[in-house]
Amino acid sequence: MITANELKKYHNLINGDQTPASTGDMLDNIDPSTGKVWAKIPRSTIEDVETVVASARKAFPSWAELPSIERAEYMRRIGDLLAEHGEELSALETRGNGWVIRETSYGLIPALKQIWYDAAGAASEGSEGETIQMGKSSFGCTLREPLGVVLGITPWNAPLFTFTIKAAYALVAGNTVIIKPSEHAAASSLRYGELLAEILPPGVLSVISGLGSEIGDALVSHPEINKVSLTGSGTTAKAIAQTIAGNPKPLIFELGGKSPNIVFADADLDKAADGITGSIFTGNAGQLCVGGSRILIQRSIFAEMITRIKGKMLNPEITRLGDPMNPESTMGPIANLAQYEKVCSYIDLGVEEGAEIVFGGRHGGEVFFSDQPQLSEGYWVEPTLLKVNSNSLRICQEEIFGPVATVMPFDTVEEAVAIANDTSFGLGAGVWTNDLSRAHQMIRRIAAGNIWVNTYGRVGPGLPFGGFKESGYGTDSILEYTHKKACVIELG
Ligand code: NAP
């Protein structure tokens, strides 16, 4: 278990070795609960990009040639390794981005294990082909083959989860993988890489940290990188698409959202209130791509639902803002200073746009922790609900990515659908109703990649996860990390 006072240095994983940046330069990683430096990570260069890509390319042929059942065995061993190192990794994740330890240890680590075991169990998907009738003298078939070197670029809000969802499926399909974590929270990924290197052959998995603005272009445009999977913002996705325009390659973009959470009058209102508060306010302090940030409530229950939501958020059993390393805390800080300033500026903007603060709105460590000086410099924002009259406000249209939601009433199904779809995003949506036919209508009519009815945010092996519209395209899965090759054999 690490403590707040330890300052640890992490290194890239290149060719199976712990490797500093070629210049020796390092970047500070800040603990967002204290605002203090807690770790140092390599500030890699374009020279380091060349080294890491060369090593991943060298490792590719022999990894790709392994029978899928053997690659599956590696995946299983990694899943087992998480049982041994889960506590350490969850602590690093929490220290790096402030996601409360009760969720990183009890929720995140089991989810990572499940992904590795799922990849192992589905390994043969990546090598299955079909036979096709071509007439009497010809025989057709398809083959699946790995792509080569896959680059996974991950965000700061969920480094270990996004690392795993990309690496597990790409590796088991026979690709070698390079992970580039965010400069803001890279320590957990660098240590994860170090642990995985105890199991995987050198070069099969690499981790390289640095500034996206310095090494991003060199990585994505590298001719030896065969696919790029980004989880991040639309701005970065557009920059990547432009960078590779002259040298196109397949992309997976898992981007942001502005997801509606819609409550009809016939719903179980207490369950809906739980689903709403859990989807945006606590846990990772609303820094969740599928956060239910636009709450829509049928007018006849509007006042009652607001009272219920408020009751939950003001209940200290549910909302306990505090040191994310303390298992009692249910909500931690915003993950970094830039994001903290962004979230605060959106709360101010909401007020300027005429939104009414239902609860919350305060920010700054000294406001909440005057008796805990170690937390007073941290990036703290309390859960904030803003009542609005129009979905056209910027706070309803732009992704805030924090514990801030808007709430507005609607009257009819038509109106709920229109407001839900009045967004450039399309990642998730929640629908709370006990009317089966209304639930089906909503599922069909909402333009989003993931719809949850009487639950929110659930994902799982076997279910695809991806976005519509500006929330991206493609989904991390075994098949997306393979080519499908057609073959015709003339027999006579
Ligand atoms: P971001 O700023 O787009 O950064 C994501 C990653 O891209 C980081 O590793 C970043 O490195 C790197 N990057 C930046 N510029 C680059 C460039 N020109 N070329 C290549 N890589 C570059 O996103 P974020 O702020 O870390 O994450 C928050 C966003 O992720 C939100 O929009 C959220 O909704 C989205 N998200 C989506 C999902 C999903 O599954 N749909 C899941 C989680 C998060 P540096 O940090 O070093 O700049």
The rough form would be described as globular
Number of strands: 23
> Mind telling me the CATH class of the largest domain?
Alpha Beta
What structural class should be given to the helix and strand makeup? Answer: alpha/beta
β-strand percent reads: 15-25%
Radius of gyration: 23 Å
Helix content: 25-40%
| Cα distance spanning the termini | 68 Å
Report low-confidence residues grouped into runs of 5 or more.
none
The structural domain count equals 2
Q: Largest beta sheet: what is the strand line-up?
A: 15-16-17-14-13-19-20
- Examine the secondary-structure arrangement and name the CATH architecture of the largest domain: 3-Layer(aba) Sandwich
Query: In the CATH hierarchy, what is the superfamily of the largest domain?
Result: Aldehyde Dehydrogenase, Chain A, domain 1
CATH topology of the largest domain: Aldehyde Dehydrogenase, Chain A, domain 1
Q: What does the main sheet amount to?
A: 7 strands, mixed
Tell me which ligands are bound: NADP nicotinamide-adenine-dinucleotide phosphate
Helical run tally: 14
